[in-house]
Specification:
The chain is 37% helix and 21% strand. The chain has 330 residues and is of the alpha/beta class.
């Protein structure tokens, strides 16, 4: 799950709405129907300026060059993603309205929000764009260098250490709660309104630890204010191959978070494949490589079916965490 973080995004097409237009002849689908035959809307569930928004603009810029139709990015914020989700659900399943989002609305929000007005069944998974690289960070003054040292300190001082998150229900919150249940630690949760203030709290010394995307915390690692104990993927990150992962420390623990593209339910398999292939072509460009490096994201090559399996696995995982920890939906 992702976003809500203070994000390093450079100058990647920032703005509430953007339109790119390069006109070339449209191509047909397997059934002879032209696609795209009109403007394409990329609906984003967060405000302009975050990584999710920049992912949409990265993809939109590339698809515009490939397909020659205006790509319009619309930021529809509010209602725990419901406003954006409903705009996609109501659209025709013809590929001209797509949803760009981080994983949370489909994997963790259903267990945090009591009355969510949408579900995965109302969407068609198309493509995973990329995965950020979550890391486990502690303030340098804590004096620990490894997971084992941190766990030992926390167990020696039960209930006295605390951790920051980007907010209730974010991957920084649920990920740390999962870590706690696997290690038997007793540390307190301090939710912030986004990643930037959470990082500020860590650097100031108000909190002891934080799970955050590597790109967001890197400047404070370089300054010596923060120490990274591990990357939290299932294998070592290409961005920081020197960082161990939790499993290497004897803890079967990882944090899955990603950005993906969805359409309304009922899209044809031919259309889904065409859009997914177009997105994949965009993601191999030099501009995409630059974006991934800047935001410490890694590509995920997955078919639509494999994407659905990723969603299901993450949904089940976060459901288990929420139930075990006893977080009550609001």
């Amino acid at each position: 799950m992702c976003d809500g973080a203070g994000n390093r995004i450079g100058n990647h097409w920032i703005g509430a709405t953007f339109v790119l237009a390069v006109f070339v002849a449209p191509f047909g689908t397997a059934h002879g129907e032209p696609f795209p035959s009109e403007n394409i809307r990329l609906i984003v569930n967060v405000a302009a300026g975050g990584v999710t928004d920049s992912v949409a603009r990265l993809v939109g810029h590339g698809l515009n060059a490939k397909w020659g139709k205006p790509i319009i990015v619309e930021n529809l914020v509010g209602g725990n993603s419901s406003i954006a989700a409903q705009a996609v659900i109501r659209a025709k399943p013809d590929g001209h309205t797509l949803f760009v989002t981080a994983d949370a609305p489909f994997t963790s929000t259903p267990f945090i929000v009591k009355k969510l007005s949408f579900s995965l069944a109302q969407f068609t998974p198309i493509a995973v764009v990329c995965r950020p690289v979550p890391v486990f960070a502690v303030r340098a003054s804590l004096g620990v260098k490894t997971f084992k040292e941190f766990i030992a300190l926390a167990k020696a001082r039960p209930g006295t250490l605390n951790y920051a998150s980007q907010g209730v229900g974010t991957y920084g919150h649920l990920g740390m709660e999962d870590f706690k249940r696997r290690t038997g630690m007793d540390i307190l949760h301090v939710p912030y309104r986004g990643g930037a203030p959470a990082i500020e709290g860590l650097v100031r010394g108000d909190v002891a630890a934080l799970i955050i995307n590597y790109a967001n915390i890197e400047p404070f690692v370089q300054s010596g204010d923060v120490v990274l104990l591990a990357a939290l993927g299932e294998q070592r990150s290409k961005m920081r191959p020197d960082l161990p992962i939790a499993i290497e420390e004897g803890i079967p623990f990882s944090v899955s978070t990603w950005f993906g593209i969805f359409g309304p339910a009922g899209m044809s398999s031919d259309l889904v494949t065409r859009i997914r292939n177009g997105v994949e072509e965009v993601l191999v460009s030099d501009k995409s490589a630059e974006f991934f490096k800047l935001n410490s994201c890694e590509r995920v090559k997955a078919t639509p079916q494999q994407f659905g399996e990723i969603i299901t696995a993450d949904y089940n995982h976060w459901h288990s965490v929420v139930e075990t920890v006893g977080i009550q939906p609001e």
